[in-house]
Amino acid sequence: MRALGVAFQVRVSDVEDRLDPGPDPIDPVPIAIAKARDIVAIGGNGLPEVVLAADTIVALGAEPLGKPMTPDVAVRMLQRLRGQSHAVRTGVVLVTGNRLVSGEVFTPLAMRDYSDDDIVGYVASGEALDCAGSYDARGVGGTLIASISGCISSVVGFPIHAIAGMLADAGVDVPVNPVEACTSLYGRTCVGAANPVACALSRVRHGGATDA
């Protein structure tokens, strides 16, 4: 948000810990919607007119790979991902008044055929334990990735191009071009510059902020 030049406040929701499993365990949109509605319901304390929420799921086929609970779990997860293609799915929700807009950015990835020593060394750094899929694309975990076929900021959990569009549609001033913001943050040309569809929001839905 700073890179886009948009002022913001952070509000933390623990609703994910209270949710029952949904029908599709690799769909991040319902969780993002629940987070947004939770913050709206809490209200008070100067709640802004616009609420933005997101959730990111690393999906290996039909299986979600969450944050590892222990280093051993992280090692096993990275062994499963080694040399494999998978996807990172980020659900994004924007609430303005009683209007809710949701969607998803889907990003395919491929991991390198890294060694067991690479895995052990990376997990020992501690970085893997705070990341879905046991890797952080922004940090040393980026060296484990062979290719990202889409939006890197979505892999990180904040799809800049899509969110900038949602904010602009909601009447929020976004001073910095999202392609420039993404390129500046991640040190690589944003794919949205040449292929906006790769960074676009899909499965866009409109609803009410308090709908069941």
Overview of this structure, please?
This protein has one domain: Maf protein, CATH 3.90.950. The two termini are 29 Å apart. The mean pLDDT is 92. Strands 1, 2, 3, 4, 5 and 6 form a six-stranded antiparallel beta sheet that branches. Helix 2 (71-81) packs antiparallel against helix 3 (116-124). A hairpin with a 2-residue loop joins strand 1 (50-60) and strand 2. The chain has helices spanning 29-42, 71-81, 116-124, 152-156, 160-169, 178-186, and strands at residues 50-60, 63-65, 85-96, 99-111, 145-148, 202-208. 27% of the residues lie in helices and 24% in strands. With 212 residues, it is an alpha+beta fold.
What is the strand tally? 6
Helix proportion range: 25-40%
Total number of domains: 1
Main sheet specs: 6 strands, antiparallel
Give me the CATH fold name. Maf protein
Radius of gyration over alpha carbons?
17 Å
Find the structural class using helix and strand composition. alpha+beta
Q: In DSSP terms, counting alpha (H) and pi (I) runs of 4 or more, how many helices? A: 6
What is the beta-strand fraction? 15-25%
Mean pLDDT score: 92
Distance between the termini: 29 Å
